[in-house]
Structures are given as structure tokens and as C-alpha cells.
Write a structure and sequence with these properties.
Elements lengths: L8 H6 L4 H18 L8 H8 L2 H25 L1 H28 L3 H21 L3 H32 L15 H14 L6 H15 L9 H27 L16 H19 L2 H18 L2
Length: 310
């Protein structure tokens, strides 16, 4: 209950924390954890961290660390639900910038890893946007987007690492024609790209569709007039995502191959093939059969909606 000196979240969740205390602390806690999820304007550390890190660390960064930030932000909603209802509609403006700005910056990057780094900023904006809808549909989409983004981005970084280990460069203009010698890596990246841009039949479509449906519907306690406008603005992030994904696919995998520059390249190892194959199958499997995962997600998000009063 309120007034107890404890960090036990189960006890705090049962207590009625005074509204003035919730109002004071919700935004600092939510945005503080949101920094780990790359929330704008505190996002620059994330793409820089991806570029500086080896492939394995980049995969953990995108697949685990950024999700910890998003999960902790969701816990803040559970602990301070009354303030969340008042203040999340303002947070949604920040994450709309995430979605559109992150995709726009990814489109002009020349370093392969920076493209994926800013792509993560954009997609994690969609996650936080799903939280801010404060309805069951949006929350379900946000949690599935966390999973989908983690698998998709790990796949992307695996492909970038495979190419860098052989080419010793990540500069997109210097690469080209890699589909000829690394077909599985090309397939994995293309599938990840389709997930990224929310194409039907892939896990990203299921997640993003629910987020945008939740945005259009607005919070459970009443329509907020600008939520549909936010949905329309955020759609441009999806359009820009398609642009930078297709640009990378065209230039890196189907561009002109330089036989004098790239010769005696090591083929993919069985470890590479196993990892990329697993990522590819998972992204397709959840896209075609999302029900089993959505049932698990529903069990986790229903208590959050109960605390919010929905």
C-alpha cells in the first residue's frame, strides 16, 4: 500500500499511490526507461552504440537491451496508471518523431550499420506508440512489435556482420551484387525488410496493424481527437521504411559486383546458415500463424488494461 518503504512492485501495484505523486514521477520514470528504448530526443546513443559494437553485441543491444527499456516503461504504466492516462497522450508526440525521423535518417545513411541503428529507433517508436494508445489492441501490437523487432534486427545485424567479416567495409556505395554469392543472407535480409515495412504474411504486419488500429480507435476512456492524425503521420514512417529497405537491397545485394575487388570470399558457415534460417522461419511463422503468440501476449496485457480501468 501507499506509504510503505518498499521497491516490491507487487505491493506498490496494489497500493493507491496519490495522484499528485503519480503526476510528479510518471514522466521522469517513463522517459527515463524510454531512453533505453531510444525515445526521441534521447536516441543518438543507440545508433552510435550499434556501430561501435561487434555484431553479437549489436544483436543483444537491439534484441534485449532496447526491449528492457520498453518493458520497464510498460511497468511504469502499471505502477502509475492514473498519471499514465493523463500524460501518455503527450508522450505520443515524441514517439511520432521517433517513427518518422528515425526512418528518414536511415534512408540517407551510407554506413550499413547506421541504417539498421536508425531503423531500430523508428521501430521502437512504434512500440512506445502502442503503449500510448491505452487500449488492448494497441498494447498487444506493441508487445508483438517488441518481439518482431528483436528477431528482425538481430537478422539484419547478422547479415551486416557476415558481409563485414568478408568485405571489411560497411559502406553501402562500395558494396554490390552480394546476392550472387550469399543467397541465404540475401533471402534473410529481404524477409527482414518485408517484416520491417509491415508487409502482410510477416510478423511486422500483425504488430503494426494492431498498433495503428489502436491509434485510430484512441484510448479506451474516450476518443482523443488527434490520435487518428498521429496515425496518419506515423504511416509516413512505414513509407520511408520501404524506401530505405529497398535502397539497401538494390545497392548491396543486387548492385554491380566488382570481381576484382571481391574475390576469394569465404562462403557462409553452417553457423551463419543456421542463425539466418532460424530468424527467417520465425518471422514468417508468426506472420502466418500469429494466434498462438497473441494469446500469450493477451495474458500479459490484460492486467495492465485492468489497472488502467479498461
Amino acid at each position: 500500500p501507499a506509504g510503505q518503504r518498499t521497491f516490491d512492485m507487487l505491493l506498490l501495484q496494489k497500493g493507491n499511490i496519490p495522484l499528485d505523486v503519480q503526476r510528479l514521477w510518471f514522466l521522469p520514470i517513463f522517459i527515463g526507461f524510454g531512453v533505453l528504448a531510444g525515445i526521441w530526443p534521447f536516441h543518438n546513443w543507440s545508433p552510435d552504440g550499434h556501430v561501435a559494437a561487434p555484431t553479437a553485441v549489436s544483436m543483444i543491444h537491439a534484441g534485449v537491451l532496447m526491449k528492457l527499456g520498453a518493458f520497464a516503461a510498460l511497468i511504469a504504466v502499471r505502477l502509475l496508471p492514473d498519471a499514465a492516462k493523463e500524460q501518455l497522450p503527450f508522450v505520443i508526440f515524441l514517439v511520432t518523431v521517433n517513427v518518422v525521423y528515425g526512418a528518414a535518417i536511415a534512408m540517407v545513411q551510407k554506413d550499413f550499420k547506421y541504417v539498421i541503428g536508425f531503423s531500430s529507433v523508428s521501430h521502437m517508436g512504434l512500440v512506445t506508440m502502442g503503449f500510448a494508445t491505452m487500449n488492448q489492441t494497441g498494447l498487444n501490437g506493441a508487445v508483438l512489435q517488441m518481439w518482431s523487432h528483436g528477431i528482425m534486427t538481430a537478422c539484419f545485424f547478422s547479415v551486416v556482420g557476415l558481409i563485414y567479416d568478408r568485405a571489411h567495409t560497411r559502406q553501402i556505395p562500395e558494396l554490390g551484387g552480394w546476392a550472387k554469392y550469399f543467397p541465404l543472407a540475401t533471402l534473410a535480409f529481404v524477409v527482414g525488410g518485408l517484416v520491417s515495412m509491415g508487409m502482410p504474411g510477416f510478423s511486422g504486419f500483425v504488430a503494426e496493424l494492431q498498433i495503428f488500429m489502436g491509434l485510430w480507435a484512441g484510448p479506451y476512456f474516450g476518443q482523443i481527437w488527434y490520435y487518428p492524425i498521429i496515425a496518419i503521420l506515423a504511416i509516413w514512417g512505414v513509407v520511408l521504411t520501404a524506401a530505405y529497405v529497398l535502397r539497401v537491397v538494390q545497392q548491396v545485394f543486387f548492385g554491380e559486383w566488382d570481381p576484382h575487388k571481391w574475390h576469394d570470399l569465404r562462403p557462409s558457415t553452417w553457423g551463419d546458415k543456421l542463425a539466418l534460417g532460424t530468424f527467417t522461419v520465425l518471422m514468417i511463422l508468426v506472420g502466418v500463424f500469429p494466434g498462438w503468440m497473441m494469446n500469450m501476449i493477451q495474458l500479459g496485457t490484460a492486467p495492465v488494461m485492468k489497472l488502467l480501468g479498461g
